[in-house]
Amino acid sequence: MSKPSLARGTRDFAPAVMAKRNFILQTIRNVFRKFGFLPLETPAMENLSVLMGKYGDEGDQLLFKILNSGDFAKDIIQNDLEKGSKQILPKISEKGLRYDLTVPFARFVAMNRHDLAFPFKRSQIQPVWRADRPQKGRYREFYQCDADVVGTDSLLCEAEIILMLNEVFENLGIKNFQIKINNRKILSGIAEIIGANGRESELCVAIDKLDKIGREKVEEELLQHHFTSGNIEALQKLFDIPENPEACLSYLENWLNSSEIGSKGIAELEEVFELVSQFGLEKSNIQIDPTLARGLSYYTGAIFEVKALDVAIGSISGGGRYDNLTGIFGLPDVSGVGISLGVDRIFDVMEELSLFPAESLENTRILLVNFDSDSQKACLPILKSLRDNGIAAELFPEQAKMKKQFDYANKKGIPYVLILGSNEIKSGVYGLKNMESGTQENLTIQEIIKTLC
RNA sequence: GAGGUUGUAGCUCAGUUGGUUAGAGCACUGGUUUGUGGUGCCGGGGGUCGUGGGUUCGAGCCCCAUCAGCCUCCCCA
Question: pTM here?
């Protein structure tokens, strides 16, 4: 017998946790559906030809590869062993676990281009796997929760995503959050203006850490990446940007007016902001943040990030616009914009702030005590009628001691117990015990159903 | 990939300068008028001290290796 253990970086979700996770996922699903994003699921495993080369060299290392079935080593020859794992891999593995939801989505769009209604809006909530080293808040199996719209570059989509994010967090009960928006074109413009044209991705990686490591460390990092002191001096204007959105936009216009791409980014951001306000959305928790960069290199337009303000945790959602999502699969010029919600982090935030509503617990509401064979028999029609009325009910499946049955109800957090022995069967009036208060009432079935509904 | 830290009961952890049969709390289980739990009282089961070597008369404790968890950096969600 071997000791039971979990595979590294994986978790069980016990029923009590699942109830809470389902509340989050269901809330998100409902909002996605309301905005016209319909669910898509793709397989856990994809051909390695789909996955490899999409996430950089490091990404390929982090892919979980699946060994071929049967005699997976049959094609290996001595020469392969000498050349090492790179030579052997394609001979022993042709499939891998998906690393994110974006690449499988791109594959799906490219494969089904003739059947889909464009612009195509999809939501996708599934686990992904990474052979990363686990640490706090990072797992080898975790859920991604994405919504994207592809096949249009309308800025209405950006505005709708902001609206949607707003609704998700409001419905979850997270009141104090901030949606930050920026535009990659503005960052490109900044790179241009400070004389570091074409180096915006390095610039982004550094700037993205601003609120984490501070201004001086960012400057240090830029120097290490061979930005000149002239570059950095020209960048100083970035640190004095006003917070007020209108003031911020005109400050940027002034700073970047000689950069075509920068001006375009400002115009886009302005339009998104304008659209959001036309939706009538209270703008207090939307902030323009020109230092928001996000590490991912494929963003080309708007960038979003959501932070929970009452909890010391990173962002709980992020996303942006990307061009040419499906180009690698032979379908060029498809622009899209999407958002990804961090379910695990949202869970932590809600747990810390005690935001899970009691009714989200999905629990059995009443346990019928099983005394003896007569009592068990009398319970069956009652059980059915409770369930027919939508009440989650269960009968203890054995004729056990009351203590044992009460302990069961307590442990499972079942709020009511129905006591039904020979006396009750005769009278047709049953003992409904409230497990929290300890009080007990004698009621008919109809009265019990009424109480529990 | 680099660094740090911790592995003792199902869980959280004590365990002295190395010295008899390794402890506690919680959990589990039985009893406490066999139709009333969660807060009482009494009892019980459960550990080759992560694994493999080494030092020693003697190792949970010291040394080496290895595996695993946790944390930081890189990167990411």
Answer: 0.89
